[in-house]
Amino acid sequence: QVQLVESGGGLVQAGGSLRLSCAASGSIFSIKTMGWYRQAPGKQRELVATITTYGSTNYADSVKGRFTISRDNAKNTLYLHMNSLKPEDTAVYYCNLELWVAGQSYWGQGTQVTVSS
User: Fold this and answer.
1) C-alpha dist (Å) from residue 31 to 26, 71, 101
2) Alpha-carbon Rg for the chain in angstroms
3) pLDDT (tens digit, 0 to 9) for every residue of the chain, 117 residues total?
4) Is 113 within 8 Å of 90 (Cβ atoms)?
């Protein structure tokens, strides 16, 4: 069993910055990727950024150059540094963990990010 808890969301003005955190706990083995996804009202959940065990990163075109995904292995925590935020970044942001074994995937409860214009 794996639990993911996101934090760091909130209200920020356009052009501002936020750092999201995802604390992982439980039986965490054979991690393939960890990532951030977001879902705006009325829209499908979309990929924001992912990072593999080997440090390979992938970003959505819409956030490339503005967001940075990183991991702190000692704290079992995933981060998303968001800079130059835009109103269109407003969404609930979810932490995701994918394991190599059995195609297991886990999700956090989400944290709201609201960017005002």
Assistant:
1) 13, 12, 9
2) 14
3) 899 999 999 999 999 999 999 999 988 778 899 999 999 999 999 999 999 988 899 999 999 999 999 999 888 899 999 999 999 999 999 999 998 888 889 999 999 999 999
4) yes
Q: DSSP letters of 28-40? A: --SEEEEEEEEE-
Residue 52 to residue 60: CA distance in whole angstroms: 15
What the block records as the tokens of 14 is 């356009």
Contact in structure between 46 and 36 (CB atoms under 8 Å): no
Q: How far apart are CA 92 and CA 38, in angstroms?
A: 5
Map tokens 């969301």 to a residue: 9
| Distances from the Cα of 35 to the Cα of 12, 13, 63, 72, 106, angstroms | 22, 24, 13, 13, 10
76: nearest Cα among 117, 29, 18, 110: 29
